[in-house]
């Protein structure tokens, strides 16, 4: 029996407040309104950005259904939807692409003004949510909310992908992989023969490593305080792995000494102010480029000596690897299917959705790279 046009009762992981576990609840998911799409989720990755909401370092209205690295199948569409239809395999886009705003029209940039990242409303574009639980409206997260058996997204925040793609793998293209890979190949524009330093070897940092290798970097120095991450980093292309805890001087000095004054490209993929500074200083003073990928703690400032930039360094950052999501996500899925890059090494754990709290424990204790939750 078709569920189109009806309220769907299903399970979702609701976060009622910060610093609390996810609570698997029975929720109602309203049908999609005009220009919206309701998706049956099949798989979703656990990303540190979701945990930033739990810890309060990323601001979101509560209660909320988080999750933003998912893949699923369209269940029904609202009026006026033309780019996807029921039965299509899709990836929700936490960084949407309206195609009409100043940024969407800019050839190089990607943070569409319709995003819900900068001043989070916790709603869809029309200012309301489609989730209710125990009679209360539940907020959206980044317009995606993938920690639910069903979710509703705006049409500008969903990409149709290859019907043959394995959703329990390509869900990583919804955030971690694309963010890291694009930060190397598209944002930094890593060049053949160059030297790179990657700070933080989680799912996103290791995807930066894959991007640096694809771009032909000759030295990829992986930096992490958890040495258990080094084997995977080497497998994916790191040429050296260093642990800041093994040195009695700042890691930026170690990197400068290792690379004749500093690397060509450095990446901060942790989300800490001190490592953002270290990554900046570890790239070459005159010709280095440093990219911020990690999400910094809310409302915290970094004090930087302008001399660090005056000498010629470039300091930049990007959301979602600089990719225009609706255009590029289907292409990245096609590239994965053509074996242009791997996703499997990033997936260390697969758990049933109901074990979401175990998935977050694995992330917090540094035991996982990516945990994929399946519905
Ligand atoms: P993760 O927690 O899996 O990986 C972080 C890694 O950093 C771990 O291996 C840690 O051991 C390591 N680490 C922690 N502290 C230090 C330190 N002081 N020095 C060196 N290494 C350290 O996270 P992730 O890979 O899922 O995400 C990484 C960051 O990227 C995080 O801040 C997340 O919010 C951000 C992110 N940004 C975007 C974007 O669009 N810019 C998208 C997705 C994630
Ligand atoms: Zn736009
Ligand atoms: Zn993410």
TrEMBL record:
Cofactor(s) named in the record: Zn(2+)
Gene3D superfamilies reported for this sequence: Medium-chain alcohol dehydrogenases, catalytic domain, NAD(P)-binding Rossmann-like Domain
Pfam families per record: ADH_N, ADH_zinc_N
SUPFAM superfamilies associated with the record: GroES-like (SSF50129), NAD(P)-binding Rossmann-fold domains (SSF51735)
Principal place of residence: cytoplasm
Catalytic activity line of the entry: a primary alcohol + NAD(+) = an aldehyde + NADH + H(+); a secondary alcohol + NAD(+) = a ketone + NADH + H(+)
Top-rank lineage group of the source organism: Eukaryota
Enzyme class name: oxidoreductase
Keyword Cell wall biogenesis/degradation recorded: no
Subcellular location: Cytoplasm
Residue span(s) of domain Enoyl reductase (ER): 17-373
Key words, A-Z: Acetylation, Cytoplasm, Metal-binding, NAD, Oxidoreductase, Zinc
Homology family: Belongs to the zinc-containing alcohol dehydrogenase family. Class-I subfamily.
Protein name: Alcohol dehydrogenase 1
